[in-house]
Amino acid sequence: MSSETASALAAIVGAERVLTDADSLLQYGRDWTRFHTPAPSAVVLPGSIEEVQAVVRLAAQEQLAIVPSGGRTGLSAGAVALNGELVVAFDRLNTISDFNPVERTVRCGAGVITEQLQQFAEEQGLFYPVDFASAGSSQIGGNISTNAGGIKVIRHGMTRDWVAGLKLVTGTGELLDLNRGLVKNNAGYDLRQLVIGAEGTLGLVVEATMSLARPPKDPAVLVLGVPDMGAIMQVLSAYQGRMELQAFEFFSELALQKVVEHQGLQRPFETPTDYYALLEFEQVSEADMDTAMALFEHCVEQGWVVDGVISQSVAQAENLWRLREDISETITRWTPYKNDISTTISKVPDFLAEVEQVVNGAYPDFEIVWFGHIGDGNVHLNILKPDALPVDEFKARCGEVSKWVCEIVQRYGGSVSAEHGVGLLKKDYLGYSRSALEIELMRQIKQAFDPRGIMNPGKIFDA
């Protein structure tokens, strides 16, 4: 970056908000992935939509690539700046305003922390249901840009289901105000939905109108030990046949061992099983608990469940959830190689069996941790790096087998990126989930929004 460009940025946002020190470049230049060395030219922290527009116009004029930075909790290197890009961080666009109790909507700056929105909703007697382990640090703009999912998708859907409107700064610095909170709007293409999940390649999400819901009534959590993946799907079918579930998660015995050992938690029960299912349901009446227990007994009789425990208090429910939610944080120390894959729910047992066979055959000396949102067909395969193995060699070995995994995904009509996005990490595998024509249309859409190609270039696909 030239000194003239740096001075122009300082004139827009203030000199103290243009960061070029090594610590800031490292902090803002990467996400939770650790396979790339960040190398941005500078970090800028605008404080208003107008400042974002001015920064983008300057970048377009100087042909300076931009990488958006939210909470930097992404798992596909979508927010990594590798080649001297300008990082635009949204920490200062963090206000919540214009709450509408009739519409149940609220306006959020892109830098609002997910947990901040959840707490605001709770203060209004409402509920923001998109939830995941990084809710305490992820930002709404990043959630929208990756269409974040999480643990409540089976009942409440993905982030896109809760975005009533959004504002986007395009690659030319223009501001689009999309949908404006309307429930019904069939006036042409819904550009809002194109932007959601685009990982910042079409423009910068600067503000969003988010929908809220009624809070769940007295949720209870049930953790079940199951002998195999087929049994998990039988349990899901049994419970969904008679109850509306808030969540249905799974994790493996190795995942449980890691969490118990490193987070100071207790096993849910003494009997070890290959897999565990975690269910959450509302207790609208006493009959709901009776139904849940009757289904538990039925599942035990059928051999689908070996043992189980149900929460008797809010604190116990929170601790049971930690067995699942603390997995990602726990395994970070092993620099895991993550496959975030999905197929239709009914195909999951056969799908997972094929993937396991390939992975276990290729990695007999690696630890494999499984967990995920199996109630919506999404499983997370985490390969843990041995301490003595260099990162580059580990990544190369995992990349070879990822191709075989993606071939299975393709055969099952699934997705190579269920909820984490494509970024840099999954870019080479996009063709296993999208046709050549689809990818070409994506390129044309990007060209329309970003004619100079400055918005998060090299992510999802190469221009």
Automatic annotation (TrEMBL):
Reactions listed under catalytic activity: (R)-2-hydroxyglutarate + A = 2-oxoglutarate + AH2
Keywords of the record: FAD, Flavoprotein, Metal-binding, Oxidoreductase, Zinc
MF (Gene Ontology): (R)-2-hydroxyglutarate dehydrogenase activity; FAD binding; metal ion binding
Enzyme class per UniProt: oxidoreductase
Cofactor: FAD
Record domain FAD-binding PCMH-type: where: 36-215
GO BP annotation list: respiratory electron transport chain
Enzyme nomenclature, EC number: 1.1.99.39
Record-given protein name: D-2-hydroxyglutarate dehydrogenase
Organism field: Parahaliea maris
Taxonomic classification: Bacteria, Pseudomonadati, Pseudomonadota, Gammaproteobacteria, Cellvibrionales
